[in-house]
Amino acid sequence: GADAAFADLLGSLAPDTGAGDVPLRLFLLALGALGALAAARAAAAPLRFDRAAAKPGKARGRLEWALPLVLLDVLFAAFNAVQLAVLFGGYDKVLASTGLTYAQYARQGFWQLLWATVLTLVVIALAARWAPRGGRGDRLLVRGTLGLLCLLALVVVASALRRMDLYVEAYGLTRLRVSVMGAELWLGLVLVLVTAAGVWGARWLPRAVVASAAAGVLAFGLASPDDLVARQNIARHAGEPGRLDLAYLQNLSADAVPALDSLPEPQRSCALEEIARELPDARTPWYAISLAEHTALGILRERPLEGGDPCWRAGLPRAVMR
Asked: Model pTM?
């Protein structure tokens, strides 16, 4: 009677565990406990990185440190001038000037940005330790050359983003391309923060960089990359659903279901077929279902998928040329 019903309710709320899961769950418990202890320790006695002061090294002569830095600025400027001339010439200019595919050109842009950022930060760290700071002229020269280096590195950020934009326009958006663009934007933000630190002081810089990384991860999750991918690809082939890469769209998560639901049949059922198989069933407890999965289940209940073989009617399988 009532006791049995109450027992069933408690059973549905309790997680289902088996003997094979015990080692993994014990490991996760230990990992969670370690993380909680670390967080408690950090809260009780926080490390104040903003109060840590690097011991300055022996100042070098102005010519000794300024000449290499000016030459580095000139090198960055020449590199950016060539890149901008090619990038803003359009697709044909890129292919004719480089002989590379869009994918190769975009990957080059990411690695160039990464190394340019690392080089900029290393140079700034070395200058903070060894650049002369005795007179006002020395301080202005340090800030001017390092500030110019940061600005030129930001042009590398713009170049990398433009390369990825060319790639996306040619082949559409994917999870990896969204992630790469997010990383490029964050590296650009770090350079902006470093530039600002050169003007207003760097005591706040470590916390700002960590906070920007945390905010970036949060924004990335809230932006729902799979939904962005689905919407961009659908908009890109508006009026031509037969050109959609349904094989890729099938691998997206439940976040993409609202966008894929707007497709005409049989493309809609084909794109949602694999996603629907991965959705939780009626036996799944409520706490194991995400909001996106709940929304997807509601959409599929209102508009069930077509029977038969919708992917065959949509033209799959087919080779997707790149």
From this structure: 0.71
